[in-house]
Write a structure and sequence with these properties.
single chain; alpha+beta; 2 domains; 35% helix
């Protein structure tokens, strides 16, 4: 956060009307107008993702599908998970705020995973994700999954940081049989269709100019990436960052007017 004693910032509300699977809907997102660090806006993206996922799940179930994902089913938690730089910073913070001995246990799982990936010849490629072409991404993901390396946060086949889990994990819901997830392929896994993916837009919260940073980072490198690669994340206005994210997400500029005397004002 920006500080325990920091005064609350004023906000504006971005209101977006959209249609998902033929059904109209409205999203309202309260955006702080003052100076904040990018990581402070991550909860907004998590909430937005959850809203879109809930709508997509409801639409899928209305069409007769059934969500297979359940607590205790952690097969997908051995996949290569792409996250944004801001999420890497958030995950690093989550780990360092864990109580002992849990913190050391999680950090050792990260280290053990990196050792395994290094032995498999995958670590160097993961350190340069923007050099991975679209054609190479699927084979890399398959090779990663074949290592059988569980997410460092997986406990009893359930996510131990569920409230802070990555955006791409939130968006990953299947309607194919749960047993298929043990050996996923394009023909055996059916995901619920997402109208848009907030995980793909999250990179625009990064401090890089014009979103020039990496488009994704492997979750397994989250603890080291912020130290090794992140630029200075000095506070910027919440509106400037969210305009960039929302405009990318919706494919059009989302105007956010200044707040009124009451501290909030809707935007359409």
């Amino acid at each position: 956060m920006s500080g325990d004693d920091a005064p609350p910032t004023s906000t504006v509300t971005a209101t977006v009307d959209l249609t998902i699977a033929g059904r109209p809907g409205r999203l309202e997102i309260a955006v702080p107008t003052g100076l904040v660090r990018a990581v402070e806006l991550l909860p907004l993206l998590q909430s937005l993702t959850d809203t879109l996922v809930n709508v997509a799940a409801e639409n899928a179930e209305a069409d007769g599908a059934r969500i297979s994902c359940r607590k205790g089913c952690g097969a997908c938690c051995r996949q290569l998970v792409p996250i944004s730089e801001v999420e890497a910073e958030s995950i690093r913070r989550v780990v360092h705020e864990l109580p002992e001995p849990r913190r050391n246990a999680v950090m050792e799982r990260f280290a053990a995973a990196r050792r395994g990936l290094d032995a498999a010849g995958l670590l160097d490629r993961l350190h340069a994700p923007d050099r991975v072409t679209r054609e190479d991404l699927l084979p890399l993901g398959v090779a990663y999954f074949e290592q059988g390396i569980p997410c460092p946060f997986l406990v009893d086949e359930s996510c131990s940081i569920h409230a802070d889990r990555p955006l791409s994990c939130r968006e990953y819901l299947v309607v194919s049989p749960a047993a298929n997830c043990a050996k996923p392929s394009a023909s055996t896994i059916k995901l619920i269709p997402m109208p848009m993916k907030v995980s793909s837009a999250a990179k625009h919260l990064a401090p890089h100019q014009k979103g020039a940073g990496p488009s994704w980072i492997p979750l397994i490198l989250a603890l080291e990436w912020p130290v090794a690669n992140a630029e200075s994340s000095a506070p910027r206005t919440g509106t400037s960052m969210m305009v960039s994210v929302l405009s990318h997400l919706f494919g059009k500029e989302i105007p956010l007017p200044p707040p009124d005397d009451a501290g909030t004002r809707p935007s359409t």
